Structure formats: C-alpha cells, structure tokens
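Check my protein:
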Amino acid sequence: MNRIAALVDAARRARCGAATLIGALALASPPPAAAQAPAQAQPAFGIPKQGVTFETGDTWQQNGQRMRLYGVQACIRGTTFTNQAGARVDCGEASLSYLAAVIRDASPACVPVAQIAGTLATIIVVCTAQVGGQPLDLGTILVSQGFAFASFSNDAKPVYMPYLVAELTAKQAKRGLWAASDLPHPNALLFKTVGNQR
C-alpha cells in the first residue's frame, strides 16, 4: 500500500492535466454497455490474500474461477525487454508481478461485468482499490503506471478509451515498462499475429 500511495502522491504533486483527466474519467465513467453487463446487479467481491493464482498481468484464478480485468492488456509472457541494469527480463512476468503487488497492497474489490464461456469460464471484472482514501480503478493504476496497456477490439478500437489515454500518458512519461527502449508492446504483437492468420 505504501508504494501505491507514494505513486498517487507523486501524481498529485505533478498535477499533469492528462493525469487529472485520466483520474476523472476512470472514476466517473463505468465500462460501456458493450461490456455485456448481466441484467441483475452483481455484488462486489474481494480478492483473497491466499489461494490466488496469477496467470498474466491482467488475469488470475481464485476459488476455481478465472478473472480478467476489463479493457486491460498485460505484456505477453515469453516476450522480453532490457531493464535499466541491462538484463533481459520477461515482460509478461513484470506485468504479472506488478498486478500481484497492487492486489496484495491495495486489496481491491471487483464487480463482474461479463462472462466468456470456455473450459474454465472467464469472468470479466472491473476492480476498485482504496489508495490514500481515494477509490481508484485497478485498470487505471496498472496502465497509468506503465505495467499494462489498453486492450483493443478485433476491429482495432480501444475497448475503453480512458485506458488508452492513461497508456499514452505513461508512455510519454516513460513510466514502468515504458522506460525500456525495446518494449514488446502486446497489442502490436497481437495484431501482427492476427494479420498473419488472415
């Protein structure tokens, strides 16, 4: 919690116009109806301190269910970048570690907004953490600090525009993974894969 609170305090001191816009949008704008929210309001649930398996920097399992953050794309595991010490580091592991640390420190509450069928159904969630007495969207924390990215739909449109604004601000400030000159941006890799399959 101290690390996240320090980041929030630093953002407040900076008073960047874009950061203020991101915060206002993230707190004021619920995910769009396109998220296919269930007809009945779903109760919020916490993420337990024990028994959570992190799969990626945007997906985890708890209580036998897979959770995925709405509108967020983590770095892809197995892709690498060069860190400030000159070592090659797995980008997906860096995203995963940051997500795990934020969840551990901020204890967010999540609300399901959709479900994707599969062998292990994936529940799409929106999560909010209390940081320094302020409710902050978990996706915004991850993206604005440079450890995740805005996800895009198959037609190359951002799933949730405030996350793209947060991503561009993090990129400009070279926060988190953006400090690497050889960052393997997941969306570029995913669209390249889709293009090669056509």
Summary: The longest helix spans residues 91-106.
